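Fold this: TetR/AcrR family transcriptional regulator
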Amino acid sequence: MAKAFNEEEKQEIKQKMMDIALMLFHESGTKGLSIKELTSRTGIAQGSFYNFWKDKDALILDVMQYRSAQKLAVVEKYFNKSLDNPVGFLADIIYEYSVDFKEKCEKKPIYAEALAMLARKNEGKTYEISEIYTAFIRKIAAYWREKGAVKSIDERGLLNTFIGSFVLLSNYGKFEKEYFNEALRTFITAMVERYIEVR
C-alpha cells in the first residue's frame, strides 16, 4: 500500500521525482522510463507514484512544464536588459526557446516524443503549459509598466504568440527544413510587434 505523505513531503518528493525523471528521459527516452526505476531512485514505494500522477504520460507532461518553468525563471533574471528594446527582447526569448526545443527534438527522441504527446493530449483546447507562459508574460509586462518601458501591452496576444510558436514547433516536420526557422522568426516578431507598443 502506498504511503500517505504530508504536503511538504509531497512537494519535496515530487520535485525529486521530476529531477530524476528528467535525467532518466535523457538516458533512455520516454519508452525506457519505468515507474519502478523512478520510484526506486527516489526512495519511495512503487505504488506511491500514483499519489503524484495518474500515469507515466501525466509525469512526462509535468516534466515538460517543470523544465519550461526553470528556463523562464532564468530569463527573469535578465529583465533589466529588456528595457531598451522590449519587443526585440521578448521576440528573441520566444524564438530562441522554440529553436532550442526544435533542435533537442531533432537530436533526442525524448523531446520529439514528449512534444507529440503534448500536442495529442491538448488537441482542441488551450495548452496546459500556457499557465507557465501566462505567469511569465504577467511578470514581464508588470516590470515594463513599472519601469515605463511600454505604452501598452496586450498580455493575451503575447500569450497566444507563445502558444502559436508551440503550434508551429509541433508541426515543424511539415515545413521544408531550410524555411522553418525563418517562418518561425517572422511569425514571432510580427506578433510581438503587434502586441507591444513601446514609448
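The domain at 56-198 is CATH 1.10.357 (Tetracycline Repressor; domain 2). The helical segments are 7-32, 35-42, 56-76, 86-107, 109-121, 130-147, 155-170, 177-195.
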